[in-house]
Amino acid sequence: MTTPVADAVPDAADEIRLRAQNPDLWRLGDLAVARRAHVVFLHVPEYSMHLPDLDAGAYNRVFAPYARVVVFSIPPPLTWDGTHLTSAGAAALARALWNIRPKDLPR
User: Fold this and answer.
1) In the chain, N or C: fewer CB atoms in 10 Å?
2) 7: which DSSP letter?
C-alpha cells in the first residue's frame, strides 16, 4: 500500500489536464475540502481505472489533508478470485488502512 505525494502542487495547466482526465475524482476532492471531510479512495491498479502514481501524487498534494488516493495491490492468496478479498484479505486491508490513518482526527 502506498500513498504517493507530489513534491509540489501542480501548476494550473497540469491541474486542468488532471481534472479533465478524472473529473469525478477531482470533484469529490473539491467536495471533501469544502466540507472538511476526510475521505480515502482506494486504487487497485489491476482493477481500477488507470491512474498513474504521478497523477495520484498530484491529487494527494492538492487535497491534503482531506482527500487522498491510496494505491494498493492485493496478493492473490488474499483473494478468492484474483480481485475480491477473502476474510483474511479484508482484515489485512482494514489493518493497513487503520495504520495509515491521520492520528490527529477525532474518533
Assistant:
1) C
2) S
